[in-house]
Inverse folding.
């Protein structure tokens, strides 16, 4: 059953990598705002001739 | 307006907007590939479904490249890696650019990725029907193709991470997290499970054997479902459902929790594919526990997807895009409820090895992956071509016939699985099996197989209609190759202040970190594994278990080539109903020389783990006739005939290499045995050919001694005999 130890180690390393990514994300403020990101994707970055954005949706 | 709010850059106020364009052409190509390979993969699926009910139909009877065992892997590979694979790339290339407010890092990388992946699919399309197979489910492709997959996957990863680096939006939307998780994990899975020792340009042996190979394979196999069919599609769900409904996701916070919870739990669910097998009990329990936990994040995400439509349900009534997405997410919910259920031993004892599993995975692929893909296509294509969908009516027709197709596909298979399993387990009052003949239980469920083929046909009709609808849409529209956009840059490069520099470094770190962690994992993994497996794993735990003879080894390779394991398991579970039917339950120590393991996951035919033991033994002549015409020995059998095994001469050119490869992997053949191997092989082959000739009283059958069929007979006669006390 040596393979399970390999898998445990690998799984652990992957988990640690993701944990580090998670901690980075939290520390760098990725999850501070849980509202705007969900809204932001609904708007396209169309070329705007004036300052005002047109929040149109095609 | 909200679109102008920038938490990271409040001072810019549009002064430093950058103009750039999104690459729509690559999205278009992946979309076409998705639809094309989807249809192809489903048609292959229909062929294998019909082969199960009409094994003797002239269209495939006696044609090696169309036999079930070779075409079934083609179907699964096409559905997973060609259809869903291209679907992932289509969705990622469209959404990632917009989420990062940046064009893909390199157009060239995009095209290498696209054509590379299509070439890989093409090589699968050629090599699988020809019988080149590693013998591991969902990882059948041989080693040169495995390497190509790894390289193209790295190109994809590079393109994705570099795009993330140069993004103009500081926040990584949750979909991107799902894409990153997918990439990192699939890389590890693919590399570890594809560790094999080549013995020719297109052949190899898994470096793992038996139980170990099974564990690695299902660690991979389950995570192929988790990280190829699920996480990237969840990313797509979190992007395309809000876009299609024009509503933000129900709870962004929940989506973050969904991602992290899923990513940490998913990877350990694999052993639930090996419940009641020779895998140590504690590893099985590990799989069960993690599988049960999975229901929480899965359902959290499913509800999050559905609730995104709160207040927009009226749109679902009219918009086919949303209809497809709603059924897709519902199917995700059903499949992820069923998954933990099937991972409970009590339930698994009934459903495992039956058609229930096939029904279960098709809720996932047809419902979740298929319908989400269709929804995205119906939403995306009119946008890329700047027009309206050609026909809402046809899209609605597709929706209904597709839904009906899923229903007719899955429900009969649940029924078939339950029926057959209960028949396998039924004892009469005197304690004997009621259905001693396995075939009785097969014939019983054939009507359900017919209904499954009908369901699949309905589903495919829907896909044809969709392709027509999309072609008409594109004809009416005007394709926009480069979509202009503008956004403020993330960091002001011209400022050389230390602060900015450090910010930038930190922002770049997660992806870099993931990349280097991965390289370390791979190096560490290989360093860790190679010695462990070479030395320890092959120490036999049962003294009487011996390596295969050269002829048996050749036969085993034919068994793998023909994909026998797609229908025949080699794993007697410790149930009375199984030991009564097949004999002594399987032990871990019996498989130590099995590179790769061939336990299988489905019993369309009976288990073969004890095929050579006195309880089940048939004569060599019986096997010969059974291969030539299965129905001559087993009336009503749905096994294809294997005439070509009788016509083909057994290729001995690689026998010595195979023995040497096995020795490298630690199988204890005597030193220098490779040279003597063919002599031993010929002797054993002659014996078998003589047995057949004398039993059938046909002198000319002695000529079979140099045919493939004797090798496969030798292997079958060997199966399960090693631990029999009365062997000698």
């Amino acid at each position: 059953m040596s393979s399970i130890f390999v898998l445990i180690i690998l799984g652990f390393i992957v988990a640690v990598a993701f944990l580090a990514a998670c901690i980075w994300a939290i520390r760098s403020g990725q999850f501070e705002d849980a509202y705007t990101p969900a809204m932001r994707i609904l708007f396209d970055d169309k070329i705007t001739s004036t300052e005002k954005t047109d929040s149109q949706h095609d | 307006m909200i679109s102008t709010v920038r938490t990271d850059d409040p001072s810019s106020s549009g002064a430093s907007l950058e103009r750039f364009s999104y690459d729509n052409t690559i999205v278009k190509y992946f979309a076409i590939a998705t639809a094309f390979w989807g249809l192809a993969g489903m048609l292959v699926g229909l062929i294998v479904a019909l082969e199960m009910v009409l094994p003797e139909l002239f269209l495939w009877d006696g044609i090696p490249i169309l036999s079930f065992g070779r075409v079934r892997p083609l179907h699964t590979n096409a559905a997973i890696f060609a259809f869903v694979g291209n679907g992932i790339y289509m969705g990622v290339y469209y959404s990632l650019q917009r989420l990062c407010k940046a064009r893909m890092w390199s157009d060239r990388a995009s095209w290498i990725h696209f054509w590379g992946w299509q070439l890989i699919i093409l090589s699968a399309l050629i090599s699988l029907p020809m019988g080149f197979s590693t013998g591991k489910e969902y990882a059948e492709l041989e080693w040169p193709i495995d390497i190509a997959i790894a390289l193209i996957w790295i190109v994809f990863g590079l393109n994705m991470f570099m795009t993330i680096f140069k993004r103009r939006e500081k926040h990584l939307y949750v979909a991107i997290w799902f894409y990153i998780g997918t990439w990192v994990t699939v890389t590890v899975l693919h590399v570890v499970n594809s560790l094999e020792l080549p013995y020719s340009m297109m052949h190899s042996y898994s470096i793992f054997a038996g139980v170990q190979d099974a564990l690695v394979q299902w660690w991979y196999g389950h995570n192929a479902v988790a990280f190829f069919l699920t996480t990237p599609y969840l990313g797509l769900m979190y992007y395309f459902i809000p876009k299609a409904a024009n509503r933000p996701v129900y709870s962004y916070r929940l989506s973050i929790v969904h991602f992290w919870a899923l990513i940490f739990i998913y990877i350990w669910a694999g052993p639930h594919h090996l419940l009641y097998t020779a895998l140590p009990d504690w590893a099985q329990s590990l799989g069960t526990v993690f599988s049960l936990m999975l229901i929480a994040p899965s359902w959290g995400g499913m509800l999050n997807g559905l609730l995104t439509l709160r207040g927009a349900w009226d749109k679902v009534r009219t918009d086919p895009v949303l209809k497809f997405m709603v059924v897709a997410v519902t199917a995700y919910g059903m499949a992820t409820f069923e998954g933990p259920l099937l991972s409970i031993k009590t339930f698994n004892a009934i459903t495992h090895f039956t058609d229930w599993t096939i029904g279960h995975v098709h809720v996932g692929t047809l419902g979740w992956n298929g319908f989400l893909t269709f929804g995205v296509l119906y939403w995306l294509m009119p946008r890329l071509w700047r027009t309206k969908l050609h026909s809402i009516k046809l899209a609605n027709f597709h929706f209904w016939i597709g839904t009906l197709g899923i229903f007719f596909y899955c429900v009969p298979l649940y029924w078939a699985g339950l029926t057959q399993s209960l028949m396998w387990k039924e004892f009469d009052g005197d304690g004997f099996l009621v259905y001693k003949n396995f075939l009785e239980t097969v014939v019983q469920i054939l009507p359900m197989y017919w209904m499954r083929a009908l369901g699949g046909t309905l589903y495919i009709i829907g896909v044809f209609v969709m392709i027509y609808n999309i072609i008409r849409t594109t004809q009416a529209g005007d394709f926009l190759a480069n979509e202009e956009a503008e956004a403020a840059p993330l960091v002001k490069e011209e400022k050389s202040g230390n602060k900015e520099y450090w910010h930038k470094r930190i922002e770049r770190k997660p992806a870099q970190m993931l990349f280097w962690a991965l390289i370390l994992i791979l190096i560490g993994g290989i360093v860790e594994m190679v010695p462990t497996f070479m030395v320890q794993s092959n120490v036999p735990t049962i003294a009487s278990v011996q390596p295969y003879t050269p002829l048996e080894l050749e036969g085993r390779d034919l068994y793998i080539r023909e994909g026998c394991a797609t229908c025949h398991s080699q794993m007697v579970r410790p149930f009375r109903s199984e030991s009564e039917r097949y004999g002594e339950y399987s032990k871990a120590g019996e498989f130590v020389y099995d590179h790769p393991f061939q336990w299988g996951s489905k019993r369309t035919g009976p288990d073969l783990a004890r095929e050579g033991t006195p309880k089940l033994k048939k004569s060599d002549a019986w096997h010969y006739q059974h291969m030539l015409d299965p129905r001559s020995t087993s009336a009503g059998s749905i096994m294809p005939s294997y005439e070509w095994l009788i016509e083909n001469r057994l290729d001995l050119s690689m026998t010595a290499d195979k023995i040497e490869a096995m020795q490298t992997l630690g199988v204890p053949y005597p030193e220098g045995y490779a040279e003597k191997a063919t002599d031993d092989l010929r002797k054993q082959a002659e014996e078998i050919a003589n047995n057949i000739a004398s039993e059938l009283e046909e002198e000319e059958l002695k000529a079979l001694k140099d045919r493939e069929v004797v090798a496969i007979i030798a292997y079958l006669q060997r199966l399960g005999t090693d631990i029999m006390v009365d062997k000698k």
